[in-house]
Structures are given as C-alpha cells and as structure tokens.
Description:
Blueprint: E1 7-8, H1 16-33, E2 42-43, H2 55-72, H3 78-90, H4 92-97, E3 101-103, E4 112-114, E5 121-124, E6 131-133, H5 137-141, H6 152-168, H7 176-197, H8 202-218
Antiparallel strand pairs: 1-4, 2-6, 3-6, 4-5
Helix pairs in contact: 1-6, 2-3, 2-7, 3-8, 7-8
Amino acid sequence: MSRLSGTPWRELGADVGRDARVLDQLAEVFAHLHSVRGKGFGPVTDESDDSFGSWAEWLRQGLTVDIGQLLDARVADRGLLELAESALSAVAVELADRPGALVHGDLGDGEVFVDATTGRVTGIADWGAAVIGDPFYDFARFVAGGPVDDARVPRLLPGLRAAYAARTGIDWDDHRRLMDLYDAHNAVNNAAWALREGVDWVASLRAKAERLLQRVVEA
C-alpha cells in the first residue's frame, strides 16, 4: 500500500486562507464522487448481498442497531426508536427521490491530506465507511465524529456547503428536513461509538438526536 503524500489536514492547524482552498477542492471532489451512481444502496463491497433495496432501509437499519445498543445499556428509552421511525416516515417521499451515489461516509480533517505550502489536497484516506446513498449524507458526516460542541463543524462545514452549492446549484434550504435526519443519524451513531469506547458524549449526543428527529417530525 502506498503512503499518501502531504500532511493530515488536522495537523496543520487553522488557517483561514489555506482552509478555504482545501474546502473548495473538497467540494470539487464531492461533486465528482457524487456523480458516480451505484446499484442498490448501502456499503460499497463486492458482495451483492450487502445491498439494500432503498436508501431509507439502510438508514433504518443503522438507527435500529445503534439505538438498540443505547437501549441495552439503559442510556436511552424506546421513545428514541419510535421517534426515529416517525422521522423516517415523515420524509419517506423525499428519501425515495434521492439518488444512489458514491458517498465517502466519514470524511474529516484526519482523512484529508494537504500540501502545507500550497494548500493543495494530495489525497483522501479511509474509505471503509463508503456507501451508495444520498450525496447529502456526506455533509452530515463531514468533521462530525466528535462531541456536540466540536468547533470544527461551524468552522469548516459552511464553507464546504457553499462551495458545493456553487458547483451543483443546490439550495440547501430546500433540504433542511433531510439534513436534520442525517445529522440525527450521525449523532446516534456517534453516541453508540462513545458508549462502546467509554467516552462521555452519550447523553449530549442522544439529546441532539432527539431534538433533530423531533424537528423532522414537526416540520
């Protein structure tokens, strides 16, 4: 396996000019990546049995498994599972209309390699979470593997979304419910990870997921 050139982006520290250049390049990468269509939905593997019949089905399975872990540990109640199902039902038509595209699924500042001098993106690592699904899901997962108050999200995500919109013409305001659902999906997944790893993020991530799912249902 060849070693990627450059330095992990997170190790370079915040730099407004360089970060803007990196985000612009990542928007272009996402635009190209999301133009690739796949069969079915779910994990990108060589096994056809891993494919799901719909994007909603894959989302539902992830929520069910992760919330199940929270229920088993008694750090959530069944109301969260019921709320997740209500949210999926509320956006069922929108989910059915979304394309099945190649999605990185876990892109953060540790997976992006950058030339420290020029700000050129030299590589992207860690494709283990890649799925065929809605391109918007990549934006819910971008630098979003931390606690609810992770400062990277408000610092970096708006610039990426703006650069992507400039390339694709999408209006993010038209997709608020989907983004709330995907953000909730990510929060639940992070809460399950935090539970397994003994990290003290579970309660705040669960509360975030509940708030977002409720907003989807009530919108």
